[in-house]
């Protein structure tokens, strides 16, 4: 099973936390981070990436349900 990762470019401050936690899933470009693929594995480090984003720019979805960032 997979989740979908979205990064809000208007919120992203390119801190690089997501790419540091999961470099095989997220990349840091000049101005923003981006998922390397829309679909990401259902793994704790995906949620950790969303939780660690200082701008809360990463949303992880399981279908219509938001699973990350966690409250």
UniProtKB/TrEMBL annotation:
Lineage: superkingdom: Bacteria
Keywords for the protein's UniProt record, in alphabetical order: 3Fe-4S, Electron transport, Iron, Iron-sulfur, Metal-binding, Transport
UniProt keyword Iron, yes or no: yes
Keyword Kinase found: no
Signal sequence interval, chain numbering: none
GO MF annotation terms: 3 iron, 4 sulfur cluster binding; electron transfer activity; iron ion binding
Listed Gene3D superfamilies: 3.30.70.20
Cofactor(s) required for function per UniProt: [3Fe-4S] cluster
Record function comment: Ferredoxins are iron-sulfur proteins that transfer electrons in a wide variety of metabolic reactions.
Matches recorded under PANTHER family: FERREDOXIN (PTHR36923)
Protein name stated in the entry: Ferredoxin
């Amino acid at each position: 099973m997979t989740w979908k990762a979205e990064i809000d470019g208007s919120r992203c401050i390119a801190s690089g936390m997501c790419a540091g936690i999961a470099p095989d899933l997220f990349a840091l470009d000049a101005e923003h981070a981006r998922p390397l693929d829309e679909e990401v594995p259902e793994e704790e480090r995906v949620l950790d990436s969303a939780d660690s984003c200082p701008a809360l720019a990463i949303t992880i979805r399981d279908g219509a349900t938001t699973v990350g960032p966690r409250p």
